[in-house]
Specification:
9 strands, five-stranded parallel beta sheet, alpha/beta, binds guanosine-5'-monophosphate, four-stranded mixed beta sheet, globular
């Protein structure tokens, strides 16, 4: 990949299935790699340090901000999340494309450092489907689910800032649609 600093940004409401679509895509598109974010959110059961996130204490997150280690960081659903510069560097050094899965506020901020970033929004067929998916995965409290649904309504208002919107009806089909967009955009 000749042009470094290329980036793919994927956003979408919590529960929409972004994680599953990205996992599917990464399983066959070897030229892209997920940049692991840092977060102050508590680790969920089954999550691993350095695989799902770098789990930072508030103090460590403060230090990382002070040392300019983030390309962007935001408060999402009450916790801090940030894209680490060194993650993007690590991926680019392998001649791969970095993929970040971040919220809509973060996506807007990242445009400043990566104006050519490909920005994709993954949406659900309806709000009711989204709510159903969030409840079914049973990883959040009722209070957290309410917060995530209310945030989803705000996030969906931001789709106009994205290059592409994918309606996630099927994980496989969505990943294939995204693959096609990436191949076209980056001449892969
Ligand atoms: P979760 O707590 O479900 O793992 O993630 C909540 C939300 O945080 C996700 O929808 C994701 O888009 C967002 N997020 C994850 N990493 C980052 C990041 O590095 N920066 C920003 N701005 N948002 C992030």
């Amino acid at each position: 990949m000749k042009n470094k600093n290329l980036l793919i940004v994927i956003s979408g409401p919590s529960g929409v299935g972004k994680g599953s679509v990205i996992k599917e895509l990464l399983s066959y598109l070897e030229t892209i790699e997920l940049a692991i974010s840092a977060t102050t959110r508590k680790k969920r059961e089954g999550e691993e340090e350095g695989k799902d996130y770098y789990f930072f204490s508030d103090d460590i997150f403060d230090k990382a901000i002070k040392n300019d280690e983030f390309i962007e960081w935001c408060i999402v659903h009450g916790n801090r999340y940030g894209t680490l510069r060194k993650e993007i560097r690590r991926i680019n050094n392998k001649n791969k494309l970095g993929l970040v899965e971040i919220d809509t506020k973060g996506a807007r901020k990242i445009k400043k450092s990566f104006p050519d970033a490909l920005q994709i929004f993954i949406s659900a067929p309806t709000m009711a489907v989204l709510e159903e998916r969030l409840k079914r995965r049973k990883t959040e409290s009722n209070e957290d689910i309410t917060k995530r649904i209310s945030n989803a309504k705000e996030e969906i208002k931001k789709i106009k800032h994205y290059d592409y919107v994918i309606i996630n009806d099927s994980i496989f089909d969505s990943s294939k649609e995204i693959e096609e967009i990436i191949r076209k955009r980056f001449n892969l």
